[in-house]
Amino acid sequence: MAEPGRRQRRTQARLARELAVIGFALPGSLVWRSTACGKTGCRCQGDPPDLHGPYLTWTRAAAGKTITRRITPEQQQRYQDWFDNARRLHQLVTELQALSLQAFDEAEDSPRRR
């Protein structure tokens, strides 16, 4: 197996250090939504509609299904760091994968391998 270069090893070590300090991570998206209930005569059925909400929802995928849960602004405040951690975790993993692909390409396309 070919060895990654010094710069690539330093980058991988930096990514590993950053990954090591990430705490709890909640995946998914936080979105403010307004909805219509479907009850006849409700204000949300008017013209123009006056929708219910807005409600803060947390949407994520689990076992191939979309799960949506309403959360309060207080819950968002309590868990915002966990949502931020999930976003950072995804960024770091994406960067590590790109670095790995680059190291592979450089190792396999090097003149020694031809």
Approximate shape: elongated
Rg to the nearest angstrom?
Answer: 23 Å
Number of helices, counting only DSSP H or I runs of 4 residues or more: 2
Helix-and-strand structural type: alpha+beta
Question: What is the average per-residue confidence, as pLDDT, rounded to a whole number?
Answer: 92
What is the string of helix and strand elements? HEEEH
Number of domains: 1
Q: Please outline the major beta sheet.
A: 3 strands, antiparallel
Spatial order of strands in the largest sheet: 1-2-3
Helix content: 40-55%
Describe the structure.
By secondary structure, this protein is an alpha+beta fold. It has one domain. Helix content is 45%, strand content 21%. It has 2 helices and 3 strands; from the N terminus they run H-E-E-E-H. Strands 1-2-3 form a 3-stranded antiparallel beta sheet, covered by helices on one side. Strand 2 (52-62) and strand 3 form a beta hairpin. Helix 1 (6-20) runs antiparallel to helix 2. It starts with 5 loop residues before the first helix and ends in a 6-residue tail after the last helix. The model has no long low-confidence stretch (mean pLDDT 92).
Summed up:
This protein is 45% helix and 21% strand. The protein has 2 helices and 3 strands, in the order αβββα.
Annotation keywords:
alpha+beta; 3-stranded antiparallel sheet; 2 helices; 114 residues
